[in-house]
């Protein structure tokens, strides 16, 4: 109970009282059941989920900042406030961004924000940084502040351009708790396989007491003439234990709490660590703005000093004498396998190449998918024999002693030249073991089909990062699918970022647009590159490639009412082929990109060993995305409900107008066998051809409704060309944070069967004439559609509801005028 008058301040609160116990399930259930969640939470959850999905392979930090309020009325006039400017949180967020993290910044509305904090709460007015231009009609940055502002601007623009910062405001303690739980659970679900890359930096000043909804007055509390206002507050449940154990287990937790009595500091800090079992906690004396600025300047100076030392010592000779692997992951992994992984560190000959090698080793180990966490520590060699007679290390501090000589000073260039000394180092690699077995079930949506699946995965089976995955799927079109996938690195043959995969599968599918059912049984072996997990600022993503061999036994069974062309295709066939694909992706989002490009080339050569028909098949896909302009920023003047994302939001795509252009092309060329008596190649198989049309590519047509047909059956084609242009805009009077867009599109495409015989009965057409005539027909006679609709971006898939208008269609093509619904992960 807090009294606004009457009791003396020093007796109003008992500072010796023990802290409230951690929230139990009943406390959490009771709080979230009896208090209303913010009205914007559902739409905010979609944005958070999309942000996490974009950065699923990157380290993510949730930074909380600023103080919470406790409203005393629903129509808030009076409230209790925990004051915090947000300096610690906003400053720390900048350092996390520089360290390669993507940051979700959960902050008090109108508190300090990363980058803008340098000027928004400065002792100088922001206008003091500006001067009038020489023409008296322009504004310029004062020369003495220009360099500093330029550096801040560059960092801000980099974070904005790469969508690394998500700004999520709150005002009340209720908004904070509901939002914190939602973000924590999203992080726990989407990063379940690698939670060690998630960090919680809880620097917000959260109220310890709140007023339950049932006791909140609707309107302003009236003066009673007694000079007293007595408010009966309930303690806010302590959710930190739930965060550590249930919401996002395995994540790194850093928490702060204010104490004004230094005699309570150590005891409460130790108690918090024991009570909540998190990794790092701090309870400190209250400090003023000047003290915080002093700490920030000290941290900046230390960082600059470290960078200077690294630059000055970059060419210093080093030699790593020994590497020790520790942790559960090291015990379950073969020694010879780890030795191969560590080879780049042993090969380093100077400090610069050593640090680069450490990054490479970290990237390779983390990319194996068998470790929960990977850390590397370096120290000067200190001979120390343990009880087992094995030389160990005195400490595990990363980079301890790298820059110090015997006197503890850093080597400069002259000292290195004069001394000619070589720094001998030892390394410790800590490998935290990830789960070696897990099973999961779920559902998938995509390309007009829904599936339910079950998966079992076994990791590090033989101690060499081997992974066995077993999948079973049943769906609306896929009657059944069973896949066994075994993958392993082959370091003696392939670079560390490549894996060897062997897959056995059996799939049964219904093909309604061609009146048949298809059963496919096969095996494939391929090598594939693994994407890098270590993404540095300005780093260009590497292309992803696959190269392999596939052998397939296929069966086509006709459905009742199948056309004669489909009946001719019925029966069994074999295929043996080699294939290769390469993809390059710089998009910021797979579902709804606002910038970046995507390219993919695929090639397949079939008929190896005389098995099945011989053919060459190639395809190309691309997508280009541009952000045209941002929606005008909106700022809420009410403190009772913040805007979901502030005007400086850099990751939320739904408030943007964007232009998307996609293309796809393909060619299937049948080959005549040398042993054949005829120069004319056999017809292509129904299952090898291309198909076009439907809500996911050329809208305004039924699925596979474009191209050659026999009655109502789509027969596919050997030559494909399609393109689409989409304009996505925010919807007026709809919150710009809502993941709903207005969609305008224009699609065009053509699918042809190659004429390999020609109209002449005496002379067969040449390859060049066939290709040139086909290309001309593809370009001159496309099917075209346009339309408008609504697009909703959900974390699981993209949903489109369009009104389509086919403009040009060939005879017998299956057009769809009117409403068309599409769901999937990839759209033209």
From TrEMBL:
Protein name (Swiss-Prot/TrEMBL): Phosphopantothenate--cysteine ligase CAB2
Tell me where in this chain the Bacterial surface antigen (D15) domain is found.
Answer: 460-827
Q: Which Pfam families match?
A: DFP, Omp85
Please give the SUPFAM superfamilies that the UniProt record associates with this protein: CoaB-like
Q: From which domain of life does this come?
A: Eukaryota
- Say yes or no: keyword Ligase present: yes
Residue limits of the DNA/pantothenate metabolism flavoprotein C-terminal domain?
Answer: 193-271
Family per similarity comment: Belongs to the SAM50/omp85 family.
Q: Where in the cell is it found?
A: Mitochondrion outer membrane
Region Disordered, residue ranges: 1-29, 632-656
- The source organism is Sugiyamaella lignohabitans
> What membrane topology term does the record carry?
Multi-pass membrane protein
């Amino acid at each position: 109970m807090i009294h606004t008058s009457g009791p003396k301040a020093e007796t109003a609160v008992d500072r010796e009282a023990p802290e409230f116990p951690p929230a139990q399930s009943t406390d959490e259930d009771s709080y979230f059941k009896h208090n209303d969640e913010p009205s914007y939470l559902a739409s905010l959850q979609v944005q958070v989920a999309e942000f996490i999905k974009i950065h699923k392979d990157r380290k993510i930090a949730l930074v909380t900042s600023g103080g919470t309020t406790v409203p005393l009325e629903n129509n808030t006039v009076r409230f209790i406030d925990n004051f915090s400017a947000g300096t610690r949180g906003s400053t720390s967020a900048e350092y996390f961004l520089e360290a390669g993290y993507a940051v979700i910044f959960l902050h008090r509305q109108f508190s300090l924000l990363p980058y803008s904090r340098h000027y928004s709460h400065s002792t100088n007015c922001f206008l003091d940084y500006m001067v009038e231009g020489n023409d008296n009609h322009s504004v310029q940055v004062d020369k003495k502040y220009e360099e500093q502002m330029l550096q801040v601007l560059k960092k801000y623009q980099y974070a904005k351009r790469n969508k690394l910062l998500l700004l999520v405001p709150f005002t009340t303690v209720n908004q904070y708790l509901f939002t914190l739980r939602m973000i924590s659970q999203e992080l726990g679900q989407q990063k379940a396989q690698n939670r060690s890359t998630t960090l919680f930096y809880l620097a917000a000043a959260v109220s310890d007491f709140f007023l339950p909804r049932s006791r909140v007055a609707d309107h302003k509390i009236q003066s009673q003439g007694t000079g007293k206002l007595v408010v009966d507050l309930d303690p806010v449940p302590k959710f930190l234990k739930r965060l550590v154990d249930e919401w996002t287990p395995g994540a790194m937790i850093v928490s702060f709490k204010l104490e004004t009595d230094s005699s309570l500091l150590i005891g409460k800090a130790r108690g918090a660590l024991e009570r909540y079992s998190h990794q790092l906690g701090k309870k400190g004396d209250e400090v003023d703005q000047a003290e915080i600025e002093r700490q920030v300047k000290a941290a900046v100076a230390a960082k600059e000093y470290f960078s200077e030392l690294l630059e000055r010592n970059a060419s210093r000779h080093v030699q790593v004498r020994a590497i020790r692997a520790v942790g559960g992951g090291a015990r379950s992994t073969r020694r010879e396998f780890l030795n191969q992984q560590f080879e780049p560190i042993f090969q380093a000959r100077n400090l610069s190449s050593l640090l680069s090698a450490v990054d490479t080793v970290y990237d390779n180990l983390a990319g194996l998918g068998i470790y929960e966490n990977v850390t590397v520590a370096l120290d000067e060699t200190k001979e120390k024999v343990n009880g087992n007679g094995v030389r160990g290390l005195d400490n595990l501090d990363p980079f301890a002693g790298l820059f110090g000589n015997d006197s503890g000073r850093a080597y400069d260039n002259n000292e290195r030249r004069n001394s000619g000394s070589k720094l001998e180092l030892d390394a410790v690699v800590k490998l935290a073991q990830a789960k070696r077995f897990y099973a999961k079930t779920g559902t998938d949506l995509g390309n007009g089909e829904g599936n339910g699946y079950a998966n079992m995965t076994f990791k590090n089976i033989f101690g060499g990062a081997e992974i066995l995955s077993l999948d079973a799927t049943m769906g609306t079109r896929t009657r059944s699918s069973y896949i066994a996938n075994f993958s392993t690195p082959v370091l003696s043959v392939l670079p560390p970022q490549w894996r060897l995969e062997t897959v056995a599968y059996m799939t049964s599918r219904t093909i309604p647009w061609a009146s048949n059912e298809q059963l496919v049984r096969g095996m494939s072996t391929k090598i594939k590159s693994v994407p890098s997990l270590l993404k540095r600022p300005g780093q260009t993503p590497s292309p992803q490639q696959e190269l392999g061999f596939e052998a397939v036994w296929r069966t086509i069974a006709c459905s009742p009412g199948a056309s004669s062309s489909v009946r001719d295709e019925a029966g069994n066939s074999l295929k043996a082929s080699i294939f290769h694909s390469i993809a390059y992706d710089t998009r910021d989002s797979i579902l709804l990109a606002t910038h970046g490009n995507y390219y993919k080339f695929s090639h397949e050569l079939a008929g190896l060993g005389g098995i099945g028909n011989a053919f060459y098949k190639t395809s190309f896909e691309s997508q280009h995305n541009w952000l045209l302009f941002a929606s005008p920023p909106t700022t809420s003047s009410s403190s009772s409900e913040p805007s979901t994302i502030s005007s400086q939001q850099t990751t939320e795509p739904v408030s943007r107008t964007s232009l998307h252009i996609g293309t796809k092309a393909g060619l299937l060329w049948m080959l005549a066998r040398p042993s054949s008596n005829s120069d004319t190649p056999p017809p292509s198989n129904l299952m090898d051809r291309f198909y076009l049309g439907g809500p996911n590519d050329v809208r305004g047509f039924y699925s596979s409704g474009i191209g050659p047909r026999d009655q109502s059956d789509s027969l596919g084609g050997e030559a494909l060309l399609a393109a689409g242009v989409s304009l996505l805009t925010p919807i007026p009077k709809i919150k710009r944070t809502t993941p709903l867009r207005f969609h305008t599109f224009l699609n065009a495409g053509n699918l042809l069967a190659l004429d390999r015989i020609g109209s002449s009965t005496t002379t067969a057409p040449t390859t060049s004439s066939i290709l040139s005539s086909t290309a001309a027909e593809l370009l001159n006679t496309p099917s075209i559609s346009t339309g408008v609709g609504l697009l909703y971006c959900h974390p699981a898939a993209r949903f489109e509801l369009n009104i389509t208008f086919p403009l040009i269609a060939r005879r017998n093509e299956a057009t769809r005028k009117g409403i068309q619904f599409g769901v999937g992960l990839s759209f033209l």
